[in-house]
Every structure is written in C-alpha cells, then in structure tokens.
Amino acid sequence: MNIFIPEKVIEICPIIAAFIISFTLLIVILIKQSFKFKRPLNVAFIGIISLSTIWTFSYFMRYISENNREFITWIYVEYICHVFIGIVWIGFSLLFVKKGKFLKRFGVFLAVPPVISYILLLTNSYHYLFFNELAINNIDKGFLWYFPHMSVSYAYIAWGIILLLVNSIRSVNTIDRRKSIIVLLGALVPLIGNIFDTLLNNYIGIHIDLTPAFFTFSNLFFGAALLRYKLFSLKPILFNELMKSIQSMVFIFNFENVLMDTNDYTLKFMDKSKKELVDSDINQICKKLPSKNNSIKKYIIENKEVNNKLVEVIYPDIKYFNLSISHIKDKKGNIVSKVVILNDITEIQKSHDEILSVNKKLNKKSKELTRSNKELENSQTALVNIMEDLKDTTTQLEKVNKKLSEVDNMRKEFVSHTAHELRTPLNATRWTLEMLLNEDVGRVNRSQREFIDQLYKSNIRLLGLVEDLLEVSKIDQKRFKIIISQCQIENLIDQVLGEMSIKVREKNINIGWDKNKYSVPKIKADCDRIIQVLINIIGNAVKYTEAKGEINIELKVTNNIAPSSIARKYKYKSKNIKYILCKISDNGIGIPSKEQNKMFDRFFRASNALSSEENGTGLGMTITKKIIDLHKGAIWFESEKNKGTTFYFTLPALK
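Above: the chain sequence. Below: its structure as tokens.
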C-alpha cells in the first residue's frame, strides 16, 4: 500500500523541526543564565542561535506565504541570516581560541562583504544580479545569490573550523580539549549538511533546503558544551595564574577520580610533563607518587573532605606532607571535581621529631638528677657519682645546645620561607584591592570604599613587615649583600624627600634642606641601600615629629669615620680617606635615655613610640645599621625625650 505525502509537507517538516529546536535551545540557555551577556564570546554565541532561529522561522513563513509581497518580505529576512551567520560564526571562533585582538583589528573588514551583499539584495530591482525573477512559484536566482554562500559565508565557516581544529590539538586540559572538539563538530555539521543538500537536490530529486536545519543541529552541539562543560563560565587566565603561584602540589580530579589538571610545582617535584599526568586515573597517579599504606588514594576515594592530614610519601626518599582535599559540587550537591593539595612539611616534621627526642632525653636526665640529689644527702660516694652524671649531662647538654642551634637555624629558614610565601598572596591582595579602589571591576559606594581603603592600608603595613622580615632573614643567613657604585648623596636625599612630601605636607613639617648649599664628593655605595637608610631615618623623623615641627638635614666632608668616643664604643676604625657625614635632626618625641642602648636591637620600639598612634616593626634601624656597616661607614645618634633626636652616619667618599 503506497502512502502519498505531499512534497510541500516533506519540505516544510524539517524547517518546523529546526525552528522548534533552535527556539527551545535559546529559551533554555536564557533560563539557565549560564553566562554573562557582557562578554563578547557570549554575545556571539547568542547571535548564532538567534540567527538560526530567525532563519528557520522566516523559512517557514516563506513556505506558507499567500502572496508575493509576503513572500519577498520573508526572503529578505531569511537572507539576513544567510549573509550574517558566517561573520558571526568567525567572530565566535576567533573569540573562542583567544584571538580577540585580531577580531578588534580586522572585524570591520570581515563585515564588509556581507553588508555589501545585503545592500545589493535590497537594490535588486535596479540591477537584477541576485534574482532575475522573484515570485511564490518561481525563484530565478542570479549570479550574486551564490556569492555569500560559496565565497563568503562558507569561507568564514571553514576558517573557523581550522582555528578550532588547531585549538583542540594543542589543548592539554581534558575539559578544554572536549569543549573544542564539541564546538568543532558543531561547525562541521552545516558543511556536511550542504553536501547532503546538494545530493538531495541534484541527484535524488528531492528539493529541500536543509541548510538552516543543519545550522540548528550544530547549535545542539553548542548547547551540550554549554550545559555539560560550562562552556563560557570558566576563567582560565586567572585559574592558570593562581595554579602557577601555589608552592605546593595541586591535583584536580573529576568525579571519576581522573586527573584533569595539576600545577607547575607538582610537575617539577615529580619530574614529569603535564601530558604524562593529565588523564591518568587515581591508581596511576598513586603508583607514580606512592604513600605509606596507600593513604592518599584512600582519602581521595572516600569522597570526604580532609584538612591537614599528615601523610608519608616515598618519592624517592620519605617525605612528609599535609594533605587537604576539597570538593567542588553542583547545585544538587553532587561532586563535580576534587582539589587535592599536598604541602611539603618534611623539614618541619624532622625538626619536630628531633625536638621531641631532645626533650625525652632531657626528661630522662632530669629524673636522674633528682635521684642523685636524694643520694647526695646520704653519702659522699653518691656525690662522686653525681659529679660523673653531671659530666655526662654536660656533654648531653652540649649536644642539645648544638641541636637547638640547628633548630634555630631552621627557624630562621622557616621565617624566610614563610615571609616569601606570604609576599605573593599579599601582593595579589594588594593588586585586587587597587583594582577595587580604581573601580576596574565595577563602581563602589562610599562605605564600601572606606572599608576597602582600610583593608588596603592594613595590607601595605603587612607587606612592609614581610619585607623587613626578609631583610633580617638575609642578615641572619649572611645573604645580605650590597652592590657598590657611585652616588651623589644630595640627589638621593632629594628623591626620598619627594617620596615623603605628602606626609610632610599633611603634618605641616618644615624641612631644613637646601641641595644647592652643599657641594660634596660622590660616595662609593649601593645607591638603593642608601635610599633605604634615608627612608628609615627621615621616615622615623616625620613619623615621630609633631605637626608644625622641624627636620633639618646637613652634609659635610670629614677625615674621621666618627668622633673618638663613638669610634671606641662601636670599634669603628678610620682609614686614610675622606668621609661624607650626613646629619638628620628633628624636634620630635625623642628616645628615653634608659632605652637608647637598645636602639639598633631587633623589634625595638621606644616606650613613648609604642604609646603613639604610629605603627612600626622595630626592624628598620637594625637593617639601617647593617647597611652602614657593610659600606664600612659609621652610624650613631643623640636623643633627649620630648626634645628630639639627631642621627649621624658617615660613608666613604670617592677619591
């Protein structure tokens, strides 16, 4: 039995199906709100889907038109999609592969052919290059009808396919590669559809234009990538920078415990490339990074979050790590991925074990001493035994003291390491706060600005403390070095006063300094370090001088490194050279006489300075004295409480 299906029904059914699919996909994406419309990539994506929806709708309306006027109107609407879907597609492809700069530079030129094409269509009645005749039952296409299809639109689509193909080959991250492949498949569908359409029309005899339908099915691939992989919501640049800055091993597994990504620190530690690790399952990773009792694998597959669990890793020697596991979940509470962080604490753990061992020995010796004291009361012989025990104990204490000295060195290294680790996130926080204050990421109101400004000032103070700790750490580890060059000290003073001008004006302090008054030889010094000395001394003078106070700066050439009393006190020795003497005086709060001998000690702050509103670390003058000593100069001061302080320092002049 033959079933007759009218040809018009056969032609219109794919068009109706295509319109329903495109329109549904557009609505689903808008409801999901999976991305922000401010991003150009998202706008291009919506443009592709919208043009496909309009295309299929105009196709449908053209088929059901009852007169030539309606028919021609929908032809024009349909042709908008014909000529502009190619340019929107290449724009989307360029943005997807991070070539937005190329699009900004040449986007106008790429849009010229489609615009000219559409203008020629609207003016067809003057030249008949697009249609020789245009009516419901007769569409006689001219030469230019094929221009946007074969020469422009599909050229743009082919170009986009090449970009996506290269991007999918180069991608190392699994999700990025899968997204690129899905979008690539979506781009191939219209080209395959065009070939299929040509076969139907020319060889099978079925006259159905399936181009809009195939564009619609390509949108289904985009929708799958959007909903499955959050196609446009990731921020890879920020993520990659964060991964690079973390000085611990980081593993990111998916819900199937397959490694999706890791950081440079992990690759360096394991001596592997990213291609060797990415896409490996948990068993393969744990074979490459074996742990005692396979504890790392057990914690990961238990699907429980873990914080600072101690694990032993045998790679190649025994190392100790703090293991932390965090889960990233979707809105339904399902685990999407697991972030595993291993922080190397081997040196700290070894120090801890050594300290426990020393404490155990000390406790044992303490008990022995207690017993010996009781025996001493009863017998002289016991006294001899105790003396022997004391000799042994002294030997043990010497060993303990040596061990404690090693522990102290490790503490210094730990402080240095910690300060280095703190500097990176503190700098990142500072940059973020500066972006907020500069309104780079959006406007802030007055109360928000005040709150952010307080955070910014606290961050700057913390950065200052970290920098001072790093300088002191360099001093401890004998890594504090200077690079000698030639400096004109008057210029350095001018530079420092310029940097402090705002604070000086706020307190209305009078600065007694005239560069033109002095003509002294150049000094042999590390210019940057001498600037640091001037900032510390002049900065303290500004900080602890009341409003409307005075600060005076003087220079002169001298034959002696310091006055004889100062030279004897600090063991300074003059050489047969000239010195430049710098004198900086203020009428500030001064330093109590009983505390002046601690001036260059670490973390020292005078009692009257502590009671003031000014903050400080107590490390600046320690660093200042070290810098002057390394330059083979001298530094000293005179001060009286509530009357002011005068600092002097000398540096070798250039011969």
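The chain has 22 helices and 14 strands.
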